[in-house]
Every structure is written in C-alpha cells, then in structure tokens.
Design brief:
lactoylglutathione lyase activity; 2,3-Dihydroxybiphenyl 1,2-Dioxygenase, domain 1; 170 residues; 40% strand; alpha+beta; Lactoylglutathione lyase @ Cadmium-induced protein CadI; EC 4.4.1.5; ten-stranded mixed sheet
Length: 170
C-alpha cells in the first residue's frame, strides 16, 4: 500500500510540532533539529515539517511505497505522466536512506516516488548532483539531462536546501 507524502516549510519547528500534533492527534514519529515527521495511518500520510529559509507552505508532494514492486509501479506512473522523469536513485536525505525519482506537475510542483529502507540520525547529503541525475523518456530510454545554466535546474524537480542542511527533501 502506498502513502501520500506532504512536505511543508515552516517558520518555527516547535510551533509546527505543537500545531500538527494537535491536528493529527499524535506526536511526530521522527524529530530532529528543524525537522519533524508524522507517519499516520488515518489519514495514511507521511507528513514532514521542515524549518527553513525557503518560502513557507507546501514544498513538494510525493508517494511513498512499501516495496520494490510498488516503487517500479510508481516509476511507470511517473513515466506515463511526464516526459521528464528525474531518477535520483539511492540517496540519504531527510534522516532516511531511500531510493527515489522525481517529476514536476504542470503547475511546477515537485513530486517524488520513493521507497525508504532506513531511518538515520543524520540529514544526509540529499539529492545527487545534477550531472548524476538520469532523465528517462516516456519510452523508458535514458536521455541526457541538461547541465547548462539555461537548462531547468534540478531544484525544479528536487527541493532546495533547508537552513543548515545540504538538501531539502523528505
């Protein structure tokens, strides 16, 4: 079964923890400096609050799956939805080790498909460098990812860093 992922940027993590704990009727399941995550079953969501310097509000959305088969299915859906899928692959970010890919919806909002294998105590290095991200066409063929200054930056697909961290993802 999949779980919706919502990541929001907040001005103060302590205020956010208090607010969302009351809203969800549950304390966060992961708390780190500037970061809190709720893994809820009702509603089934992975909700993250990140304290940061970015614009406050929804940062990105995603779908978290529970196994490799689910991840493959999500990747197929991303490829059906967009000509520009960004395969991040295995990464450590947001206090977790995961494998993920990204697309951008028509409104410019980043979506990630991911499978988390481990919760960690460090934020991690986050998304890979743009040169290492693989783009695939609708037909599943690997294509070159633009790296010039004129090309759309990876941040279009992978969220930008939060304060004191090297990357802002889930």
């Amino acid at each position: 079964m999949n779980r919706l992922h919502v990541s929001v940027t907040v001005p103060n993590i302590e205020d956010a923890k208090t607010f969302y704990a009351a809203m969800f009727g549950a304390d966060p399941t992961v708390v780190r400096p500037g970061y809190a995550k709720w893994m809820l079953d009702d509603p089934r969501v992975n909700f993250v609050a990140n304290e940061g310097s970015k614009a406050e509000g929804v940062d990105h959305l995603g779908i978290q799956t529970e196994d490799e088969a689910g991840l493959h299915t999500l990747y197929e859906r991303f490829e059906a939805a967009s000509d520009d899928v960004r395969e991040e692959g295995k990464t450590e970010c947001c206090f977790a080790k995961s494998e993920k890919s990204w697309v951008t919806d028509p409104a410019g909002l980043g979506w990630e498909a991911f499978l988390t294998s481990e919760i960690t105590d460090t934020f991690g290095d986050g998304p890979v460098a743009q040169d290492d991200v693989i783009s695939t066409s609708r037909e599943g063929e690997k294509t070159d990812v633009p790296t010039s200054q004129d090309a759309a930056p990876v941040e279009t697909y992978i969220p930008t860093p939060i304060v004191g961290k090297s990357a802002g993802c889930c």
